[in-house]
Sequence to fold (164 residues):
Amino acid sequence: MFTNIHLERARKSQCAAARLSYVPDAIELHMLMDKLCFTAVEIGQHTAYDDNNYFTYHEIDSVWFDEEKLAAKGGNEYLAFVLANEFEFEAGEHYELADIRDFIDSADFLQDEQIRDLDFDLGDVVRFNSHDEKVCFDVMAEKIIKCLKDDTAALAESLTGLAA
Fold:
């Protein structure tokens, strides 16, 4: 028989489980930000029309570079290497090396099908980030660690309580 205590524990486990379900998407975006030396990205919510239905989707609207980290890794040459090897964007074909940062912060890159189809849901990242559409690299790392630490323990505790 469930009591109010059991229901409260179930609610707590549901909240912790929901937050934990967003962590893989947050980690994937964090890894992309690290790879491309971003300090922050702005995720926008957009509406589109398809097959007589309106739907919303999220995509990266703009980025900010970590200039020190980028310089330490090799600057524009490093970015060109990442774009060519990770995303199959070649210098000369898609951008000029001197304009690579502008290209990365443009719709040509951020709204490209390859970027849209990355293996994470930007909507889940926004939900994980407390519905804040600006995602900062260092803050996201702290939130991921805190969530894994706090919510894993809370989920384990609440599930143990449910079994009792």
In short: The chain has one domain: 4-163. The helical segments are 4-35, 67-73, 75-87, 100-104, 107-110, 113-116, 122-128, 137-163. Residues 94 and 113 are 14 Å apart (CA to CA).
